[in-house]
Amino acid sequence: MDPAQLVAFNAVLLAAMASPGPALLLALRTSLVQGPRAGIATGAGLALIAAAWTGAGLLGLDIVFALFPWAYAAIKTAGALYLIWLAVSMWRNARNPLPATPPNRGHAFRTGILVNLGNPKSVLFASAVLAVIFPPDLTLADKGFIVLNHLCVELIAYTGLALLLTTGPARRAWLGARTGLDRVAAAVLGALGLRLLLEH
C-alpha cells in the first residue's frame, strides 16, 4: 500500500460522505437542533460503524452477504424501518419547541450507530472501492491502518461540520426556517427508508 492509494481512498470517502444520504442528513440536523456536542457525538457513532463496515469489506463480508442473502435483507429491512421511524418522529415534532434540557450525547451517539448499522450497502460500497484502489495482497496491518484512517477522516469531517453549523448565523438561519426544513428532512429520510425497504 502506498500513500497515493490512501489519498485516493480518502477522496472517494469524502465525496461519498458529501452526497445526500441518511448519515449526512442526521449529522446536519442533530448539529443544528442539539448543538455541536450532540452533532459531534452523532458523527462519532456514524464514523465508528462506517469504519467497521470498511473493515468488514476488507475481511470479505460482501462474500458472506452473497452466500446468505437473507442476512443482508434482514439488516437492510431493520435499517429501513429505523429510518422511517426517525422520519415520522421528525415530522411530528417539527412544530414543537426545542427542548430546554441539555442534549443527551449518549442518545446522539447511539442514533448515529443505528443509522449506519442499518445500511449494509456500505460494506458493498466499501468492498468495491477497496478492490479498485488497493492491491489484493494487503497485510493485516495495512487493513487495520485503512480502517483507522477511515475512522479519523469521518470523525474530523463530522466534527468540522458540527462546529461550522452551530455558528450564530447558521443557527439563526435554521431557526427561522426550522419547521419547513424539518419537514423536508423527514420526507427525505422517509423516502430513503422506503427506497431501502423496497429495492431488490
TrEMBL record:
Its main location: membrane. It is a multi-pass membrane protein. It comes from the Bacteria. One of its GO terms (cellular component) is plasma membrane. It is found in: Cell membrane. InterPro entries: LeuE-type. The keyword rRNA processing does not apply. The keyword Ligase does not apply. The chain crosses the membrane at residues 6-28, 40-61, 67-91, 112-134, 146-168. One of its GO terms (molecular function) is amino acid transmembrane transporter activity. Keywords: Cell membrane, Membrane, Transmembrane, Transmembrane helix. This is LysE family translocator. The lineage of its organism: Bacteria, Pseudomonadati, Pseudomonadota, Alphaproteobacteria, Rhodobacterales.
